[in-house]
Design goal:
The complex is a heterohexamer, with 3 copies of chain A (432 residues) and 3 copies of chain B (112 residues).
Chain A (H helix, E strand, L loop, with lengths): L1 H19 L4 H4 L8 H29 L5 H28 L2 E2 L3 E2 L21 H19 L9 H24 L3 H4 L8 H19 L15 H20 L7 H29 L4 H15 L8 H25 L7 H19 L12 H33 L5 H6 L1 H6 L6
Antiparallel strand pairs in A: 1-2
Chain B lengths: L1 E7 L4 H10 L5 E9 L5 E5 L2 E5 L2 E10 L4 H12 L8 E6 L2 E4 L11
Antiparallel strand pairs in B: 1-5, 1-6, 2-5, 3-4
Helix pairs in contact in B: 1-2
Classes of the chains: A mainly alpha (432), B alpha+beta (112).
The structure holds adenosine-5'-diphosphate (3 copies).
One adenosine-5'-diphosphate sits at the interface of chains B and F.
């Protein structure tokens, strides 16, 4: 067996060499560029932080909110997306997003299989190209994982896999290219520091489409669907917050003043969001809740993401306060409208991201100017950014879902839903 | 008085409770149990091993009722708990000598 | 709604501009100073680490120790304090602590709302001022959160909010100023590397006053009040330990030899504390416990905090060993004395911090000298530091509690206590 | 009491001075060398990351897999080993591993008690010697902790303590010296970037010997021994993965291109391992499981460890894919063979580490060449490395176990096993 | 012999157990249950929705006793479990045909 | 019909279930309970305090059986559940008036 494995891998190597043109490109990419160890240290750390946001952070945040019969299935969504999209990114996605621009809409295939992505500094930074790639990889993975909250407790596992791959390649990579990879939105001057449009609007409105296409969970509005473990969600919140410093301040791509600005804005908005959601709920229902504080923190973080590096602390405070109230209102609205966005991805990431992109156009004052600082044009650009992202994502997601439905079916059967994802999809139980 | 025990499917609990409340039942006690019966259990996988789990999650209701409620309770309970598929559960009825309400010391039907 | 929100925020901006004098101060603070990317990377990370200590670390450490009906309330204490005190710090607290010294006792109001706190290097360091500020912010937040362990399971939520703000502004900020911000204790030469006095004595003895003023929990000494989830506490311990490296080694304010010394001392003391508490308990009760190991680790960490950057590895070992035994003895003593410091804040942070401040006066040998290294004067200064911190905190905390009690009442009702914080204060249940 | 404590510690100091020859060595180690702040920041962080891998990471990964009556005992294994081995390393182990080479087999005693280990740069790096020491310390601790999975739920606590100390001093330190400390394997040119042999083969095959010598758990194969909390294991997986970036990319000892290569290879292999284990299980049993994904991730991480810094992304992908399938096969084989390696340390770390050491000899292409890149000699060296590590560890572990058994007995009694470790060894219950 | 079942408030368990031990009861079996009755439940909030939870945590005691202990047990139990506020619970008594101690095979009162 | 309740040691559950299945029992209901009896509990330590815990984890089985199965069930159950050491548990037998299978409405022995 050992022997045949080796022949096989050897064969694969040869194939890959042929495919790649220069399989040893990584080892050969010449003398290293001007790497700054401090910047590199920070982006190495930031990449790890974003991993931590995703798994265990997001996985637990979502996991605590579902019923106990679905907890492993929910964790598996995030875990498998992290694995799968990472590989897709390495093989194809990175190149589509960050390869040389082709017509403003997509990257070239030059970095297929990470060919030519090596230890040299990424242009305009002091960090190795490989680290830039892996930092971006983490963003690609978490964006897809965020969506899963909207169809929690009812998606077929095979459908999830297919959906994730298609969405990442067809929606995320182009979008990342448009904004960050040299595409038309970035060229237009759109500001999206760490992914308000690319990550949050995109996942948030994809989530809306998913919730509508998949429909409500069996028993929605009738049976109680209370969270099975809120401390797990609080733990997830803490890890998301922690990791978000890498997400936002890491987006400065160095350990510099920009990172400092982003770090502080991120923290302030998280705190302000937590407080304002809490107060809004307190006023409306008479009690402040732990889940409200946690949700507000995440709302603040999502909303500040696009502007983090461009905002003064007090602007961040204001934006955070608005985020908490607005996203809470969106949750309340959802209940009235009756669609089942199970874990409120739309209300938090969709609404938060959208608000944040616009707020950046108003409040940007550090290294860029928004409307309130004398630059009304920026606000217009931000509107274009938000709206075009939304439209592209909504249409794209709808089409992908229809294709996946046709191919493998989106939903588990009602009996499976009653049994839960854990036993029906994975033959596992979480607790015993 | 009678003691009615019913083993039912967990997701039927609210429906059964509401149906019983409607016919005037004011109290009951509920326990999470595991049932073994004709309804098949499920398989669980653990790192390469498969386990057959025979026990199925069920809910047990206990109701102390006055004798004249027996029929009505059984009918109502049976209807509300029924899905028609295997594993719907059972109702067991036995005699109860007496009932006391701890708070007041009342006994008999008034204590229910 | 969108429109009115914007007018409102616009109005607020104007107000803030007026209030702040120069709202764009942050964007304008001139050419960046000599920022060192490596130092900056490390303090960015350290700030995130201290966040992780607080939420989820401390929150879970405490959360695991309470009964399940109080878990969300306990998590909410830490979470809301983190949010609230961060905002207080940004608006006011930082300026009071680190504004230009006024008479040795308090900072000026120059940094109100972080005016003038920007990307330039903080004097004497290679890190942006904003990062210094946010690193200190994390300390301000966790210090208040530490206190909550003493009144767990019985404090009113509104009382908590009020207490936290008053305590932070009236006790923490002055204290931080005295020791680190140019105040009289620092000027006198007091050594407190990462907060033995400012953080641990202060929270530990505030906790003592809280426990005495609020009184025992209903059923204390009669009902069993066993922890509801010790693995949660172990998880919290691990995250606290992890984050403590940022707390202590980050206090070197750079990625240098001092950070190395502090990192190693921190680790050794944690390990030694864990082992010595375990052995002490083993000897006394016949069994080593997991909670004993965890408690000893925290005791070692708290005790090494003030000296971390000044101690040799073997001194750290000794101090850690002493810490474990001493703090365990303090827990046993508490039980005899009968006050209900529910989660042993006094025994671990109060006693640990006090011991650590004195031990620093004895064992300091790296970059400073203690009594055992020929400098008896240092020990005297350390005694002054410890005692004056203790006295200030005890009196101040007492007064604040009385004020809060008069305004909103400190304790929930006995019925609410029986129901638990989760349902009575937050209308939430943790597990279902 | 205070007074006598001080006299005692003073006495101890004197003793330590005499013992150590120059107790103040740490404070005196001269002018600092050429410290690079970026490199230092990264290794400070990496050291903390490896702590996080161990506690809470590994502790929870294992803890979730045992029955609820053994959870605290399982957590205590990792926690106490971390504390104990850290102290052993400081006092003795580091010197044995990294002291000046004596005859290729062991380090001198020059660094006893960390004498002479100070803030100066460690030769060949830009990081303080103390940080190098503490980074290595974390490796020493986790290696022993890994073994505990094989004898979970049945080892006596006292036996564990004794075993851990002996194994660390007699097996780990020599091995670390051979490969990394100037010993014969390193001199021969053996490649082990972050511990495929030193950490994973060694713990994995020690685990095999432990499982065989201790024998099956009571009721093995008869009673169900299903995991009590799989979300806990998933949380542990996430923290292990997160920390592993410090473990592997930190092994570059700087924030440089090598760290970038290692970081990327680590991530890719984790993802590939997760996917391939999942698919293998899906094919074999008909369902993909969450635990399968988690196990595959760890298998990928363990397998990539020795080659992380030497591999191209696509080689890492291939190795990760192989790792998942191979380690899963090893688990299936274990069940057939009937030995009770309770948490599959052999199948994951033993098989993974072995495979990784050989794969490095085949695929190395960055900074070293393997067989497939024209250097067949490297593969031969790797075989020597893997086999000699295995033989040394198997014999050594067997002897140590026999000694420990003779001294204190290895296993708890059948009644204690029925009661569980928590109550029988620690008088504690995890949940209430 | 009689089988006494009592539904009581959870925090009363230790007190009740001690009181019963004092009058010579040597064994009992305890189950965590959820009760539905006159005692109101509570509200729970979850992201903007409020749920009314009707079930209240209770503890169920089961005691097999000799016939002549019936009165004493009921009195003692009732007294120890009483707080006087709604939701104190009930005592149910029914007949028991026989009891067997598994360990020894003993039956009758000696098996209790 | 009879209702058999048995309190047994938790790790005996599978063995008992298998033994009962072998003699033709097709259904039972299982509850996790805490027992108080002659078997000592254990001590727990919590930061310097020791607590004596009197309750021991047990499992309760409930089986409704036809009258003619009584002896066989008791014997089989008693044998399978026995370890011979203290705390093996008890079997309680009482009368059952009637049984209804919810799914079909069947009553009597056929509903078991
Ligand atoms: N003889 C019995 N004694 C006690 N409980 C029983 C008995 N038979 C069945 N049950 C309970 O009723 C549940 C449903 O029974 P099952 O045989 O699965 O289906 P059905 O109710 O449709 O006949 C079981 O899970 C078990 O809890
Ligand atoms: N008819 C009944 N049958 C079974 N259990 C009952 C019945 N009535 C009440 N209970 C139990 O007794 C508990 C207390 O009853 P409740 O009506 O709330 O107050 P009180 O005991 O003061 O009358 C309930 O929570 C329920 O568990
Ligand atoms: N009188 C009783 N009524 C109800 N349950 C009892 C009674 N006596 C014992 N039990 C149950 O039986 C279990 C075993 O009883 P115990 O006295 O410990 O040992 P043994 O069964 O060997 O006599 C107890 O834990 C309890 O659950």
């Amino acid at each position: 067996m050992k022997h045949s494995t080796f022949s096989l891998t050897w064969l694969l190597v040869v194939i890959l060499c042929v495919l790649g043109g220069a399989a040893t490109g990584w080892a050969q990419d010449g003398t290293p560029g001007a790497i700054d160890t401090g910047d590199t240290a920070w982006i190495l750390v930031s990449s790890a932080f974003v991993l931590c946001m995703t798994l265990p952070g997001l996985a637990l945040f979502y996991g605590g909110l579902v019923r106990s019969k679905n907890i492993l299935g929910t964790l598996a969504h995030t875990a498998v997306i992290l694995c799968l999209i990472s590989i897709v990114w390495v093989l194809l996605g990175y190149s589509l997003a960050f390869g040389t621009d082709v017509g403003g809409v997509i990257g070239s295939l030059e970095f297929l299989g990470l060919m030519g992505v090596g230890q040299d500094a990424f242009p305009g930074t002091g960090i190795p190209h490989l680290i830039f790639m892996v930092f971006q990889l983490m963003f690609a993975a978490i964006t897809v994982a965020l969506i899963t909250g909207s169809f929690a407790e009812r998606m077929k596992f095979t459908a999830l896999l297919l959906f994730a791959v298609l969405w990442s390649v067809l929606i995320y990579s182009p979008l990342a290219h448009w904004v960050w990879g040299g595409g038309w939105l970035g060229e237009m001057g759109a500001l999206d520091f760490a992914g308000g449009a690319v990550v949050h609007i995109s996942s948030g409105f994809a989530a809306l489409v998913c919730a509508l296409v998949l429909g409500q969970r069996k028993g929605y509005g009738v049976e109680s669907m209370l969270p099975h473990n809120l401390p797990m969600t609080v733990l997830g919140t803490g890890l998301l917050w922690f990791g978000w410093f890498g997400f936002n301040a890491g987006s400065a791509l160095g350990a510099n003043g920009g990172a400092a600005t982003a770090f502080v804005a991120t923290h302030i908005a998280a705190c302000a969001g937590g407080l304002s959601w809490m107060v809004a709920e307190w006023v409306k229902t008479g009690k402040p809740t732990m889940l409200g504080i946690a949700s507000g923190i995440i709302a603040g973080l999502a909303t500040i993401t696009p502007g983090a590096g461009f905002l003064s602390p007090l602007s961040a405070l204001l934006i955070g306060l608005v985020a908490g109230v607005l996203c809470y209102a969106a949750v309340v609205l959802k209940i009235r409208l009756g669609y089942d966005d199970s874990l409120d991805v739309v209300a938090i990431h969709g609404v938060g991201g959208f608000t944040g992109i616009l707020a950046t156009g108003l409040f940007a004052s550090v290294g860029a100017q928004g409307l309130f600082f004398g630059n009304p044009g920026q606000f217009v650009i931000q509107v274009v950014l938000a709206v075009s992202t939304l439209v592209f994502v909504v249409i794209g997601t709808y089409v992908i879902l229809k294709v996946v439905d046709a191919l493998v079916g989106l939903r588990i059967s009602p009996e499976e839903e009653e049994t839960g994802l854990d036993l029906s999809q994975h033959s596992e139980r979480a607790y015993s | 008085m009678k003691l009615v025990k019913a083993i039912i499917k967990p997701f039927k609990l609210d429906e059964v409770k509401d149906a019983l409340t409607e016919i005037g039942i004011q109290g009951m006690t509920v326990t999470e149990v595991k049932g073994f019966g004709r309804q098949k259990g499920h398989k669980e996988t653990y790192r390469g091993t498969e386990y057959q789990i025979d026990f199925v999650p069920k809910v047990k209701l206990e109701l102390a009722i006055a004798d004249d409620m027996e029929e009505k309770v059984i009918e109502t309970l049976g209807k509300a708990a029924k899905t028609g598929s295997i594993g719907d559960g059972k109702i067991f009825i036995s005699d109860l000598n007496s009932v006391i309400r701890i708070r007041t010391g009342e006994t008999g039907d008034g204590a229910l």
